[in-house]
Amino acid sequence: MDATEFRSRGKEMVDYVADYLANIEQRPVYSDVKPGYLRSLIPTEAPLEPEDYEDVIKDVERVIMPGVTHWHSPYFYAYFPTASSYPAMLADMLCGAIGSMGFTWASNPVCTELETVMLDWLGKMLKLPEHFIAGTHGQGGGVIQGTASEATLMSVLAARSKAIQQVQASNPGLPEAQILPKLVAYTSEQAHSSVERASLIGGILMRKVPTDDNYAVGGVMFEKMLEEDKAAGLIPFYLCATLGTTPSCGFDHITELGPICKKENMWMHIDAAYAGSAFICPEFRPLLNGVEFADSFNFNPHKWLLTNFDCSTMWVKKRDDITGVFKHSEQPFYLKHDSQDSGLVTDYRNWQIPHGRRFRSLKLWFVFRMYGVQGLQAHIRKQVALAKEFESLVRADQRFEICAEVIMGLVCFRLKGSNQLTELLLKRITESREIHLVPCQLSGRFVLRFAICSRTTDSRHIRQAWNHITRLTSEILQDPDQ
Ligand code: PLP
């Protein structure tokens, strides 16, 4: 494909994308393909000779679309949202065209510099404490990770390095291998599975802290566990608190947990993967109080801030802590550059697991400028209002119960009575393919999660979804076999 053909094919692709998104409601939100569906639709080997673009694009509808779950359909209410907006998609296109790697400042200066400034902009939107803002002389600052999972892993590794250093400072000569088995990290029993994975990769013990009636971790239970573990000779060194847990959007009490971590000299990381975007709204910002105690904080603009995947923003109080993870690894000759010791530049490869990195800040720059803070706040507020609307519909129907406080865009609900009834309802919903939800378990109960996901979801979709749920419910409850 040459530039001339790219011009015309590119315009056609933009039309295809615009049509796809404009008409997405007409597609069943949930794919009904069976495992292995794709193999019979395409050859077993890559083509030897080049094919025509026409033939490739024709196969998008035949091969690809049948297997797509349409996350941007207004009838998609599963998991948490994955963000999408036209400005972010256009920026991603430009990012692909520039196609430069930003592992060091010198490898693509604008990639590093725009990222640092965008994270400052976003940090200020969230009213993060000053120590998280890089500015020109800050000791902290922000970085874009691919996912919240990577951010959590980096925080575990940073906290581990720091803890080992501190133990060795008071026990000179004590080998790392003798310290590691004593280190213990903590997280909520409601934390995302990626937190436990981070501890597995980091080779440290992680204990799950039981939650209160609001599925949140508080200070009393946390302190009790710390005392038990210290008495057993363990060294508590890390806590991952969650703001907006995946099952029910619960909020750990970081104003209680933070001072405990400070007293115990432990690293506090905050995972606000979904809910973090809402803190740009003054009415939700109080939920972030206590962030001043955190060593690192992370959330995903790729979930709720209209920035397409991947874009997970992480701030650290002290950049030396995070870059310290890799300080013993050798710097290859080909990565050295004249500015690296100037104190003026960041080499982001030392803040993350992978070596390569895309120019992801371009998406943030486009999105921030084209929506403005007010446009982004309006998006969050609209989605929270839709969740409240759905909550009212559920509460008005005596057959159902709400299972967790609705604070943001997630409603957890179930049919009163046995778990089997709600399980059957979900089965019928999934088979219908009109809307898509996933369940969670709360206090041993089978619960449906209704998350407002698509940017285009409106009140009429909510009412339609509810009518669908109540119709299926009536069918189930009228069935004499139930
Ligand atoms: N943390 C929380 C609270 C989440 O809800 C999720 C995903 O939904 C994650 C972490 C994982 O996010 P990522 O896919 O960016 O790793």
- End-to-end C-alpha gap: 60 Å
Helix content: 40-55%
Low-confidence segments, given as residue ranges, are: none
List ligands, each type once: pyridoxal-5'-phosphate
**What shape does the CA trace take?**
globular
The averaged pLDDT comes out at 96
How many DSSP H or I helices? 14
Q: State Rg.
A: 24 Å
Q: How is the biggest beta sheet arranged?
A: 7 strands, mixed
Q: Strand fraction band?
A: 5-15%
| DSSP strand tally | 11
Query: For the largest beta sheet, what order do the strands appear in spatially?
Result: 1-7-6-5-4-2-3
Query: What string gives the helices and strands in order?
Result: HHHHEHHEHEHEHEEHEHHEEHEEH
Q: What structural category do the secondary elements indicate? A: alpha/beta
